[in-house]
Design a protein that fits this description.
Elements (H helix, E strand, L loop, with lengths): L15 H11 L4 H15 L7 E4 L5 E4 L1 H7 L1 H8 L3 H5 L1 E3 L4 H11 L9 H13 L3 H13 L4 H14 L2 H14 L13
Parallel strand pairs: 1-3
Antiparallel strand pairs: 1-2
Length: 194
């Protein structure tokens, strides 16, 4: 997925929730679709649910999931299961990301309807979504950053994560903010980059 420009991303005054409301209305008008996906997110929350796979975060915290749900929603996971990788045998996949970032990915995969995440998680999702082939999640993260009220701190964080993800649109967005708010800053001249 190209992340070179903001042209295809609309600004929503009320953020991601407004985006999902419009998307659900315009694309997913059939009630059976909504009922199915509302139910999909509830499967994970049900007390008697039996999980068959574990996602391990960089702090060794674990998230239990259903491999069939993830494989049906996530091409990377489906390819991993089909390729007889060690993770298929161990029923464990390790992520180099914080719990909050991985949890946001899982919520997205289970299509949780009441879904929101912080700016910091959005910045982390830039890398995770790019790394693990999740274009819809990447768009969500980009929308969150585009619609956020930037500060120097969060703009630097988003720029750094966008740099890791090779996301030129977010890098440019944050660099413009930083340039206009930190007089005379030339991003190219910062030692070691941002």
């Amino acid at each position: 997925m190209s992340t070179d420009c903001w042209d295809t991303l609309k600004v929503y005054k009320h953020g991601v929730k407004e985006y999902w409301t419009e998307l659900n209305y315009s694309i997913r008008q059939e009630s059976s679709y909504m009922t199915f996906h509302d139910g999909l997110s509830k499967v994970r929350e049900h007390k008697g649910t039996v999980f068959d796979f574990t996602l391990v975060c960089n702090d060794d915290k674990e998230i239990k999931v259903h491999s069939q749900v993830l494989a049906s929603q996530w091409p990377f996971f489906d390819r991993m299961l089909s390729s007889n990788m060690a993770e298929q045998e161990s029923k464990t996949l390790k992520f180099p990301h914080d719990l909050e970032v991985v949890e946001a990915m899982v919520d997205h995969l289970y299509e949780k309807q009441e879904w929101s995440f912080s700016f910091e998680v959005a910045a982390g999702l830039l890398v995770a979504a790019q790394m693990y082939d999740s274009p819809e999640l990447l768009i969500e993260a980009m929308m969150q950053i585009k619609n956020a009220e930037l500060t120097c701190d969060n703009a630097l964080l988003a720029w750094k994560m966008a740099n890791k993800a090779h996301n030129s649109a977010v890098k440019s967005h944050c660099a413009k903010f930083l340039h206009s708010n930190i007089g005379g800053l030339d991003v190219a001249e910062v030692p070691g980059g941002l």
